[in-house]
Amino acid sequence: MEKAQLVTKYELSKIAVIGAGSWGTTLANLLAGKGHQVDLWVREEEVFDQIKTNRVNQVFLPGMELVPGLNPVLSYEEALSDKELVLLVVPSHVFRDVLTKMKPYLKPGMSLMAATKGIENKTLMIMSQVAESVLSDDYMERFGCLAGPSFAKEVYKKYPTAVTIACHDLAHAERLQELFYTEYFRVYISEDLTGVQIAGALKNVIAIGAGAADGLQMGHNARAALITRGLAEITRLGVAMGANPLTLAGLAGIGDLVLTCTGDLSRNRTVGLKMGKGMSLEEITGSMNMVAEGIKTARSVYELGKKMEVELPISNQVYHILYNGKNPQEAVRELMTRELKVELEH
Q1: Cβ neighbours of residue 147 under 8 Å, at least 6 residues apart?
Q2: Which of 31, 71, 116, 216 lies 20 to 30 Å from 210, alpha-carbon distance?
Q3: Does the active-site annotation cover 203?
């Protein structure tokens, strides 16, 4: 009861969730379950009809009944009317387009946040930078990002989960913390907007590599090495972009990395697993109805590493496997026979 009173105090109870994939639907369901007024913008009319008629998103969250307070809508105008908080949960490659189409309906005083993990291909921007390039400065001080180890199905089933919300304005982050907190969904806060986003993006690329190693049946030693050295790459690039290295050792960093590299619900690990077993990228993506962010992010990370002059050997090999048809076995051989190094860098 005390938590609900705090949410009401901060007046963030009228919420639009933009994007009805598994994660967007789950977060909308969580917030509506706490008694907030939640409109969920849905792109697919089929999904809209399913939620409206049967209270289920059979395409992206099959078999999971949604709370009555969750209201699906098809237009940005209806979704954004009279809202206090707007949460974007769309793939990174459409984030700019969606935000641009939303812009005419945004009003001063609205709070915006993103639960998208990726890096834009053309601009090499993280999502807060994309938002800054589209919107006025009025929205950016309180712009927040939600990150951390959180499979949608487990959050829906109320399995214990811990995440991080980052925002430059820590007082506003506390408001968002109270808004999302439940007995099963624990929320920490951070001021490191860059760190949580870089970690959330790169872990998907590393997970494709870890999945490929599993597909090749290389064992637990190889997976552990990929995760650990993958974290070194995330930290290296994150620090180069101004992130706090401690963020990368937290929930948004190592927490999400371990989950995505090892969990059977991980779409990115699944992509790697199938590639390790000999399937082509076209075959894999053709069989999926949800986006594996690491596929497109691998291209961004490859280019960003070159731009920032940061060494990213695992990420680069994943890029070559995905886009240049490199044999995963050869990629592993090259990683293992690189010049010998000191483990800890200054």
Answers
A1: 115, 117, 163, 164, 165, 166, 196, 197, 199, 200, 251, 252, 256
A2: 116
A3: yes
